[in-house]
Amino acid sequence: MQTTSFARHLVATGALALTAVSSAEAQDWVAAWSSSMQSASPETWSMTDATIRLIARTTVAGDQVRIRLENTFGEAPLDIGAATIGLQASGPALVPNSVRPIRFSASPSVTIPPGGLVVSDPLALPVEAEQRLAISLHVRGTDVRSSQHSNGLTTSYVTEPGTGDLTTAVELDLFLDTTNSIHWLSAIEVHSSSARGAIVAFGDSITDGSCATVDGYDRWEDVLYTRLRERDGGARLAMVNAGIGGNTVIRVPPVGSPPGLERFDRDALDLAGVTHVVLFLGTNDLRRDAEADQVIAGLDTLMQRAKDRGLTVIASTIIPRNPVPRGLPANLGFTPARNAARHQINDWIRNNDDLDGVLDFDAVMQADGDKDLVEPIYDCDGIHPNVLGYAAMARSIDLDLFTAAP
User: Fold this and answer.
1) CB neighbours of 351 closer than 8 A, spacing ≥ 6?
2) Euclidean distance between CA atoms 356 and 67, whole angstroms
3) What is the 3-state secondary structure (H, E, C) of the chain?
4) How far is CA 107 from the centre of its chain?
5) pLDDT tens for residues 212-251?
6) Any idea where the domains of the chain sit in the sequence?
7) Which CATH class is domain 189-400?
8) Does the model's pTM come out above 0.90?
């Protein structure tokens, strides 16, 4: 199902995809937040004539916003009866008088075909950097499963089935259910005079934030974003998370999400205002026993595609995996052969003159005395860093790799 729906998506997005802007001096619209759709929701999760309130944090200030909704993995048209955006006060409650109706080609409702996406009309709403927005969608129909990002690490809110359109409601007690996944909402862009670009962190679960804190914003790219804000005296570069747990560079069975090569346009190049891309993929390809040369070829293709758009391209080395992870299947660990391939890829990254920079996360995460083990104080489960590890990764980054035009 995933392969077919995503192929339909690639066909459907030609007229609707957001326009990428590669020149930092020309920024008006900038991607301020994103979430990469990876699969259909489980059969146990659906909506029936109800409202979902999705929470997302913008990373630059501006005076207008627009959103992107996807039905990438839907097998039927998605019928959105109404949509609003407002400023989150706490939980599902909104700041009074902040709610604005969202329009799609001037209509309050929209139907998105299977595999398709839609971009809303711009609307006036002043937002600050790090402000949490609430996007409310009235989903019409019965037992509607979503296109979702599974590990959203953000608490969003859902009303009971049959409660209808509550997109303008500000009361706390109407949204009785919660979800930590992101459903349908894949991007928020802000019209900004202060932003000078956007960084896309394009990766797998270590970028997605496995072992990070729900609603904590303590992944490596979050810490990097904070450091850049402090350096620049404000949010000049937006931060976009395009990580998907289990994601690969190339198509290696078993396929759980669109591989990097197949989703790069949708999740990176087609977002507005992108100036920098960080490539941090490959560990899951090796876990599925892909050859190092195959992964290198895929990473090289991603790099060249971004370079062709005039983007700054930075790559991260692949961090260690312990031979036997804790609390996870043993086959997710790295054998000597997988580590040999990891070192080959990392050597290619470190010595690649076509890259604009390297984040050597491998060196940060290595255990003292054993380059194939994760440093214990940074280790969550033998595969992913803990919060301290994410912070150490971010603090190791040379901020000069990320420049913002004046």
Assistant:
1) none
2) 30
3) CHHHHHHHHHHHCCCCCCCCCCCHHHCCEEEEEECCCCEECCCCCCECCEEEEEEEECCCCEEEEEEEEECCCCCCCEEEEEEEEEEEEECCEECCCCCEECCECCECCEEECCCCEEECCCEEEEECCCCEEEEEEEEECCCECCEEECCCCCCEEECCCCCCCCCCCCCHHHCCEEECCEECEEEEEEECCCCCCEEEEEECHHHHCCCCCCCCCCCHHHHHHHHHHHHHCCCCCEEEEEECCCCCCCCCCCCCCCCHHHHHHHHHHCCCCEEEEEEECCHHHHHCCCCHHHHHHHHHHHHHHHHHCCCEEEEECCCCCCCCCCCCCHHHCCCHHHHHHHHHHHHHHHCCCCCCEEECHHHHHEECCEEEEECHHHECCCCCECHHHHHHHHHCCCHHHCCCCC
4) 28
5) 999 999 999 999 999 999 999 999 999 999 999 999 999 9
6) 2-17+40-185, 189-400
7) alpha beta
8) yes
Which residues of the chain carry a pLDDT beneath 50?
1-26
